[in-house]
Every structure is written in structure tokens, then in C-alpha cells.
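Interim report to the steering committee. The following record documents the input for DNA mismatch repair protein MutL (626 residues).
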Amino acid sequence: MSDIIQLLPDAIANQIAAGEVVQRPASALKELMENAIDAGASQVQVLVKEAGKMLIQVIDNGKGMSMTDARMSFERHATSKIRTSADLFAIRTFGFRGEALASIAAVAQVEMKTREKGAELGTLIQIEGSEVKKQEPVSCQEGTSIAVKNLFFNVPARRNFLKSNPVEMRHLVDEFQRVALAYPEIGFSFIQNDMELFNLQPGKLSQRIVGLFGKNYQGQLVACKEETPHLNVRGYVGKPENSKKTRGEQFFFVNNRFIKSNYLHHAVANAYEGLMPSDMHPFYVLFLEIDPSHIDINVHPTKTEIKFDDERTVYAVIRSAVKQALGAHNVVPALDFSLDVNFTENWKYDSGKRQEVKLENTLVPDDIAKEKSYKSFQNPTFKKQSVSGWERLFEGGSGLSEISQETARKEDKDFLTFTSKASEELSRPTLEFSKPEESTGTTFQVELNYIIAQMSTGLLIIDQQVAHERILYERYSKQLSQASGASQQCLFPPHVQLAPADFALVMDIKDELHSLGFVLVEFGKDTLLIQGVPADVQVTNEKALFEGLLEQYKHFKSELSLDKRENLARSLAKKSAIKRGTKLSTAEMETIVAQLFSCQNPNYGLSGNKTFVKLDLQKIQTFFNR
């Protein structure tokens, strides 16, 4: 039998390695920017075309490379960062594996120009698919310029897996932000398709945060600092009232290296306990300084995962540091709520339950509670419609026990005919409603959360928010599929300035937003003008509606695997549905009931929980031992 095991050619081995190191354009950008930092650059410029698919170029003014080093940098496992295995546990540089440039060159057309400081000439190297096409002296500026062109040109299958330009652009911006945050003392610029997105001057961390995320962050930053023999923590956390539903603006850096850690995120969230709802996420940028011998970063090629030899201590220090920062800056519950300007409705007052929230044995005074209560429900969704026959849902007279089950079942057919002409085609439960003796049904609210409707065979209890979300979700899904959403023009169109990543996201779903009724116009860099909103949404603040919709969309995107239309329909339904604690008129309650049972799936809400429960008369009688 002949031998069948053989060494792979370098080109194939590099392509295999590229599958882990270079997953998308953002992966290549991350590696190139980190190399520029390791080279001691004080200025880093990023140029991108077609979301990195056509070009990713990183230019730095670092120390540059000699001709030999430039050629060796494209060999696998060639690195200047480590020499012995012991060096793996004393790493303070970004790179050390020696795989990045070799992997990138295996799946792209790469051109490098580099010149050492003091050298007369630099070096030009051109590589395509691991094959060196040109190497020669060249006149160039000090430092290094690496251009990655036509990523995955020789791996069509990988290129086909890339997402749309706005999606890939969002990932590029995310990677840029992480590196730029880690080194505020270095100047960065980012140019996409000849348009400058960022121009960040060297400065303090707080200035870098504002430069990346916008001026809105100036007033919400709380300094955080803690020094221990084992670990030092520094950075900024956001005030509780500025927390969001989505995770994404949470940054941990260990020895200036960005990492992801759910365990450490829990430590921060635990420090905010009682200050914000459990489903909200605070903003934070925290830097951990620790002896490299106590961590292991050689876990994954992307190096965003890390292992600590004592995770519990790290957890406790972070939690303590954040708690101390929040307390020192007066954003914890105070004795006199009316004088504390840091409080908002997030934790002052639970509007959904219409009750005072007890924090540190302190109650919210009535005047603040009134301020935060919901306004009367006035949604144009509940305009008068042709809902004749809805009263058959309810029982207006007495003597329910005398109505036979046979009569109730007979009259169910009349009710279902009213509910929907297409009821035979819909799959939903058989509802045991009967025609009342009188046409005046009984409908009322309990705790401003539930609608109680009287039936011939008992009571129907409906969760008003969950039911309305179901109604709106099916309506918006239909509008998206038919592109039929009507729009109401804004009298004074507001403008919304977004983070670059959010702006790219909006551009990706712009057509779907238009189908819902939003009219958006680009209004300068990362800014949109809202000229119209969906006609069936009652809104007094178009900007707040749009920003809330975007946050909800990002939340669902991170938590669920949904397509754009499904996600948008769910997000707008969640955002515009009536909330618990909203007082409804009898007509509004009756309309909700009628519209709910006209839905294709009236049984369950968007989260899978029930929209209604039915309490049979027989069950009620058992409560009284009858």
C-alpha cells in the first residue's frame, strides 16, 4: 500500500489558516491596524472602498521594515513579537502568531510599501494568492502602507458569503472603533469611498469616546478607577438613564487588547442592579491592567477571548470599581428624589405597574409618579371601523348558568362568521362565545394591564400590550410584503445624527423602512432627515420613535435570527404598541378584542406568551364549591 499522507503546499495551508484569521473585510482591517500600532505609529490612516471588498488600505508612520523583514513578514509563523515559549506569557503586543499577513496574502492581492526611518529607499512587494509577483526598491514615505485589494478573489465561495456593503461596513467601523478606543493618544482617520467618516486627533480617552460616538456622550460619562495589587481598572461607564436595550457599546480592554467576556459583562451589570431595568445594557469603556503572566490570550486566532488564572478576583474588582464610580458621582438612589437630577423613569417609577418602586427604603413622591405616568391612549389605530357584531363576544344579561352548552355552540358559528370572512382558512382555536340577550357587553380593565371581557360561558382575560403587539405585527408584516405602508408627513422634519455603524445599518434596511411608511433623506455625514413616519402610528416625537425602533431592531438582531422584514415588523410593533399601565376607553378595548380575533394567530404574542386566557363558567363555579 502506497503512502497517502503528505505535506500541504504553502498556498493551500495559508488559505486554510485564512479561514480562521480572515473571515470578512473587517478581520483584515483589524490585523493591519494592530500591526500599525505594534510598529509604533503615531498616525494611522484607513482607506476603504466598497466596504472593503475592493480595497482596504492602512497607512502608518511607524518604524517601517527593511527589505528582508518586508519579505519575511508574509511567511507563515514569521514574527518579531516572540522568540521563546516563555514569551507567550509576557505578551503586550497585538500580534504574535505570525499568521495575519500570510493569511491575507493567500486570499487577496496585496501591495506593501515600507521604509525604515533614515533609509533612502523603501521596499515594494506585490503578492497575489501567496505568490510574490514583484519585489523592488521604491521611493516612499517613512512607515508602512499595506493595500489589500479584491479580497477573496481566488476563493469565490468565500466571497459569496459576504453580506451587503452596509453590513460589512458596519463590521469595519466596529473594528476601527475598538482599536481607536484602545489608543486615544494615537491619531486615526477613516475614509470610505473618498468620504471621511472619522478624523480623530490624539487626546484623552473621554475626547476619543465623544469623537467616535458623538457629542451626546459628553454628559453621560462617569469616570471609573480602581487600583489593586492584582489588577488596575480605569475608564468610563455610562449613567443608568442612558442605558440601551442592545449590547454593542460595551468595551473591555485587557492590557489595551479588546476582549469579549460575558462573565465580566455580568460584573458590570451587577453593579447597576437596581438602577436600571434588567433587560437594559449600560455603556462602558473599561481598561484592565494585569500582569501578562496571569492571563492566556493564546486561545483563539482572533485573540478576542482570554483566560484569567483568577476570574473571581477580576469579577469582584470590576464590580466594586463600577459601584464606587456610580456612588461617587451621585447616580445611586438618593433620599430626596425630587432634588436628584440624575434620576429618570428607568428606575424612579415603574410605569408599567403604576406603582412606586422601593429603592434603599425610599419611595417616589406622588408628584414625580404623576409626571412619569402614561398619557391617555390616543392611537389612530383605533379609529372607528366596521366591527358590527363585536358585541356577540360579550354577555350583557344575567342567568349565565341557564344557557345550555348546545345553544352556546350553535351561536359560536354566528360569531366566527363575524370575526373574519376567511375564518375557514385560518388555523386558530374554537372560541365558545354566544350571542347575549342584550347588545350591551361588559368590558373593563384590571390594573390598567388586562382587558376583561364577559362571554356567555365565562370570562376572557386579554393582555392589552401583548395583544396589540400581535395586531400591529401582522399589519406591518402585510405592509412590508406588499410595500403598502402609508406615510404621514412631518410638519417640522427632525434630523437624527447616528453613529457610523448605525447609519450603515439604516442604509441596509432603508427600502423596508420606506415600505412601512418612513420617509428618510440623507442629510450630511451620518445624518438623516425624517420627513415622514407611518400613518397609523400616533407619535409626538418622530426622532424618539425612529431611534427607539432602531434600538429595538438591533436588540432583536442580536438575540434572534430573523430576516430584515420580520425583524422590522416585530420592532415597530414593539415600539408603537400600547404599554401596560395605559388607560383605555371602552371603545378602544372593544376594538382590540375584535382586531385580535381577526389575526391569523391570535393565541400568542411576539415572545411566545399567551395573548389571552379563558376562564370558563364551570371553572368559576368550582371556586365557590358549586
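DSSP finds 19 helices and 25 strands in the chain. The committee is asked to note this result when reviewing the revised timeline.
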